[in-house]
Design goal:
With about 110 residues, this protein is α+β, with helices and mostly antiparallel strands. Helices cover about 20% and strands about 40% of the residues. Strands 1, 2, 3, 4, 5, 6 and 7 form a seven-stranded antiparallel sheet that branches. The chain is elongated, with a radius of gyration of 16 Å. About 5% of the residues have low confidence.
Length: about 110
């Protein structure tokens, strides 16, 4: 019984640690192309991009990184963008590691 409990605790720890995005690289990402129809600010200074469905994607602390909503609305709104989204153990994150519009990199975490 004690070994089973330890197994569950370790499994939960590994599951949650696989959701932490730390220094994403291009080979660790899924590339997705979509049209952005709305851009908003979240309560934690994230910038949230909404597609024409029910999905949304975000730049973590984007406002703290010097991005501006007015500029993004001009460059990104109602345009088709290419997003690099980190892969997770159980799928793909909504965290944007790189945002490109018409071959112009608007944001990147890649070094």
């Amino acid at each position: 019984m004690k070994n089973l409990k330890s197994f569950y605790i370790l499994s939960i720890f590994l599951l949650f640690s696989s959701c932490i995005i730390n220094n994403p690289q291009p080979e660790d990402c899924v590339v997705q192309t979509l049209k952005i129809i709305k851009i908003t600010e979240s309560t934690s200074n994230d910038i949230v991009f909404h597609d024409n469905g029910t999905d949304f994607y975000y730049i973590n602390r984007g406002l703290e990184r010097g991005l501006n909503l007015n500029t993004l609305n001009t460059k990104v709104l109602n345009k088709t963008v290419t997003l690099h989204l980190p892969k997770l153990f159980l799928g793909t994150s909504e965290h944007i590691a790189k945002l490109v519009v018409e071959n112009d990199t608007i944001f990147t975490e890649f070094k």
